[in-house]
Design a protein that fits this description.
Layout: H1 2-22, H2 44-47, E1 55-62, E2 65-69, H3 72-80, H4 82-85, H5 94-100, E3 107-114, E4 117-121, H6 124-131, H7 134-149
Antiparallel strand pairs: 1-2, 3-4
Helix pairs in contact: 5-7
Length: about 150
């Protein structure tokens, strides 16, 4: 009887962990954090043209993630228009969403702004692939994203 209960418990645990492995949050925060963009200030990409680390003094919760900003002005800008400043595809790697129809973490240091929208890539090598056909990758990622996030 004890072996049967232990076996059943193992099956239940496996099912729970397998199901949670496929669930993705709409905003990439990593496994052990709740910080969007690894704590970088998403507004700074637009106002300063570079990644700038945010501060816990200027923090806001949005779509289940904590967003950090380098100053009160950037926090206020984001609060007024979060969709304008939030990275596309929840901060996941835009190339992976387009090319692999899958999730991969976005690196806040590997970024570009295209037509007023922020895109992140997994690493420098992937960003170089992304840069070879940005409009094509954006079109494919826009097509793939709803199916990925709604699963």
């Amino acid at each position: 009887m004890k072996k049967w209960v232990t076996g059943l418990l193992l099956v239940v645990v496996q099912i729970v962990f397998t199901a949670s492995a496929f669930a993705k949050d709409p905003i990439y925060t990593g496994i052990f954090s709740n910080r969007a963009l690894d704590g970088y200030d998403t507004v700074a990409y637009f106002t300063q043209g570079k990644p700038v680390e945010g501060s816990s003094k200027f923090k806001l919760s949005y779509k289940g993630a904590d967003w950090y900003f380098s100053n009160q002005q950037n926090l206020d800008k984001f609060k007024a228009e979060p969709e304008k400043f939030a990275p596309q595809f929840g901060g996941y790697c835009a190339w992976a969403v387009a090319e692999k129809n899958d999730f991969a973490p976005g690196d806040p240091e590997q970024w570009n702004v295209v037509d007023g929208k922020l895109y992140l890539n997994y690493n420098k090598s992937i960003k170089n692939k992304w840069l070879k056909d940005v409009p094509g990758f954006i079109a494919r990622a826009n097509k793939n994203w709803p199916g990925l996030i709604n699963n």
